[in-house]
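Format notes (please read before filing issues)

Several people have asked whether sequences and structure tokens are stored in separate files. They are not. Every record keeps both together, in the order shown below: the sequence lines, then the token lines. Line labels are part of the format and must not be stripped during preprocessing.
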Amino acid sequence: FYADFVKRYYILAAGLVRNPPDPKDATKSILKACNIDPEQYQFGNTKVFFRTGTLATIEEKREAKVASMIVAIQTAAR
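Then the structure lines:
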């Protein structure tokens, strides 16, 4: 679902909020920020559909972003 996708991956797009008024547009923004090929996904009425391996790529980008955020927080704490 669009809302679930945005809640999990909103950190990949700068300036996006966790609960946007239009989750479908927010999903489009996230995919554009991740430079995902438009051939690898398709929008439905309530969900976004991915080809095999595309969601894994997005998840890896999310994990890398979270890891860099954790390092920045640890650095500031020290």
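For reference, the curators noted about this record: Residues 54-77 form the longest helix (24 residues). The radius of gyration is 14 Å.
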